[in-house]
Design goal:
mainly alpha; 2 helices; single chain; 0% strand
Length: 54
């Protein structure tokens, strides 16, 4: 889960920066929000899994 968090977070940051620099202006806003949402949810799930005691 941590890898999914890091990959989706890096993709969303890269897309956000490239869109801000007007290199990828044709990308709609939801295409940036989807990796951000995946990063948030996978980060929460990863944090919950780390606190569990097996």
């Amino acid at each position: 889960m941590a890898y999914l968090f890091l990959v989706s977070l890096s993709i969303s940051v890269l897309l956000y920066i490239l869109r801000g620099l007007e290199i990828l202006t044709y990308i709609p806003g939801w295409m940036i929000l989807v990796p951000m949402a995946i990063a948030i949810f996978s980060g929460i799930i990863s944090g919950i899994n780390k606190t569990k005691r097996f």
